[in-house]
Amino acid sequence: MGRSFLAGVVAAGALVAVVGLVDTHAVPDAAPDRSPHGRARHEPRGLTTRTVVVSRVVDGDTVEIASGAHVRIIGIDTPERGACGYEEATAALRRMVEGREVELVDPASVQDRDAYDRLLRFVDVAGRDTGFAQVRAGWATARYDSRDGYDAHPREERYRAADPQHASPCGP
After folding, report:
1. Hey, CA dihedral for 121, 123, 89, 59, is it positive or negative?
2. What sign for the dihedral angle of Cα 129, 119, 25, 15?
3. Phi/psi at 33 (nearest 5 deg)?
4. CA-CA to 123 of 20 to 30 Å: which in 6, 73, 145, 164?
């Protein structure tokens, strides 16, 4: 074997050793992205962000992503089918996210799924918090947070502050 070949093998071995020292578990909640839900990015403060495409808006606070999973937006509640505001809330969310690439933000402080097996996430599109937008527009109320007996979430104070300022077009 030639000297340059041996030097290349030693350099490659050193690179593998250095790369092996980088541990994805050093970042809170970090794990390799093996899911079909999109690519992951790990944010500070225990927030994990995953980029996905919204294939369909189910209603004003729930979307279906390209993998087929349903995602319930954390911290808000919109009218149910048949109730005043349902069509408007659903249409508003559809305009924001349907067919678009969004960021699913998973705070470590909130359980992963709800009783209906939907992923619980914030949904941001182009830096815009869709849950907050729904509350500000009056199509959603700030709910399902620490004041309602659920897990605290990092956006609840902002949502709660906006809620009384933006009355629902359907009345109290």
Report:
1. negative
2. negative
3. -85, 100
4. 164
pTM score of the predicted model: 0.71
- What the block records as the tokens of 1 is 């074997």
CB atoms within 10 A of CB 74: 28
Task: State the DSSP code for 127.
Answer: T
Asked whether the beta carbons of 122 and 133 are under 8 A apart, the reply is: no
Q: Measured between alpha carbons, how far is 39 from 144 in angstroms, rounded to an integer?
A: 27
Cα–Cα distance measured from residue 160 to residue 55, given in angstroms and rounded to the nearest whole number: 29
For residue range 20-54, list pLDDT tens digits in order.
322 222 222 223 333 334 444 434 456 789 999 99
C-alpha span between 33 and 54 (Å, rounded): 19
Amino acid identity for residue 165 in this structure: Q
C-alpha separations of 10 from 17, 18, 22, 60 in Å: 11, 12, 19, 58
Q: Find out whether 53 and 102 touch, Cβ atoms under 8 Å.
A: yes
